[in-house]
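Q: Got a minute? One more chain.
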Amino acid sequence: MVVAADRIRSLNKYEKTILLALERGMKRYSWVPMEMLKTTTKLSESEINYRISRLMEWGMIRFNPVPYDGYALVFGGYDTLALATLTRKGTISALGTQIGEGKESVVYDALGLGPVAIKFHRVGGRSFSSARLNREYMPEQGHCPWLIASKKSAEREYLALTTLHPVVSVPLPIDQNRHTVVMSLVDGQNLNRCRLDAPGEVFEEILENVQKAYHAGIIHADLSEYNILMEDGKCVIIDWPQWMETGHQNAQVILERDIDNILTYFERKYRVAYDRKDAIRCVTG
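A: Always. Here it is, folded:
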């Protein structure tokens, strides 16, 4: 759950200092030792203990006594740092309600210069293990906790959006900080929740956007009816952190899987018949 915006406003400068020290320390440690916190923050142990107790109460950090007294950020603390930065930059001014949730993310509406969406990447637990196995931008060895994995996932998605927009129908990228991506708010429903009047036309529009992305060097790599939104009768393709370059050795297999997913959906729900080889040629030709 994203920390309440009023909690961010009441955050003491010492508490923010501790959160930043934990963020830096977690690049080296799963649990940051008290001694490192004292060295990094220049605060007394009594001051650190007082501020830590508040941060723990607010669900921003966690304590572990084994094999030494150590502390770590949890998503509430990482959310706080990202939101504080985005607010200071003027990217967002108010956080709204949750509007979406996936295996590795939650999405909220927010206010910036206008209505926006802010996506919090949540690579942790089972999804972290899967990401490390299946995504080449994750290091195979070394210390890479959920914090770094989630940040890399957000950076990856932002890069895709900035590369593709506006040629491909994707949300407008606005800003990115830590594990968050701020983008335009798409006022629409997921494809799987819609009843299309002209499904054949929508299928061809999706295929056209897949083709444009392909010619920009990008394959979605997780395309399905669940990450396509319909806004004013037009498709908007979302969720790009797993994208793959077209020059990758597995690119053809991944592209065909994406196309098969969409073909299967339209055939099953709308009886739209489209030759698979023709669809692939349409994208790669």
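A: Residues 5-76 form a domain with the Arc Repressor Mutant, subunit A fold (CATH 1.10.10.10).
Q: Perfect, thanks.
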